[in-house]
Write a structure and sequence with these properties.
Layout (H helix, E strand, L loop, with lengths): L5 H4 L3 H13 L5 H15 L2 H13 L4 H5 L12 H14 L5 H10 L2 H23 L6
Helix pairs in contact: 2-8, 3-4, 3-6, 3-8, 6-7, 6-8
């Protein structure tokens, strides 16, 4: 049996991750789009708990179905802006822990420094959630 999720077990860990998310949200990024980023990263990391959670949040927010369902194929569908596609590319490369100059420059064309920083914090935050959930084999309730 694996340990419980460290976020729930270590005092202050949950607050730290929630504070990180709040700081990123304060940069003016669209909340629903950040949820799409979280969904994309969660799909990449195979985190069923987060895939379930962010899909439900997006549906509750009435985000268009095609924007939710096509997130894994964002390059090949017309449902996202150039700025959003640049953010998806950044999220994918950050998740693989290598960001090319080209991807970074494209993201920087569409997002100001504060928003880009918020986007990067959101990507780091969801990767942390995903990794802990996958490592401790968390399941959808």
């Amino acid at each position: 049996m694996r340990i419980a999720n460290p976020i729930m077990s270590v005092p202050g860990a949950m607050k730290a991750l929630l504070d990180l998310a709040e700081a990123g949200a304060a940069t003016g990024l669209d909340k629903d789009f950040v949820e799409l980023i979280c969904l994309r990263v969660s799909i990449m990391n195979g985190c069923g708990v987060c895939i379930d959670y962010h899909t439900k949040l997006l549906r509750k927010a009435n985000v268009a179905d095609e924007r939710v369902y096509a997130v894994a194929g964002w390059r090949d569908v017309p449902y996202y802006t150039d700025a959003e596609k640049a953010a998806f590319a950044l999220a994918e490369e950050m998740t693989h822990v290598h960001v090319s100059d080209e991807v970074y420059a494209e993201a920087a064309k569409h997002w100001d420094e504060k928003q880009l920083a918020g986007l990067m914090l959101a990507i780091c935050g969801i990767n942390t959630w995903n990794r802990l959930n996958v490592a401790t084999q968390q399941k959808v309730a």
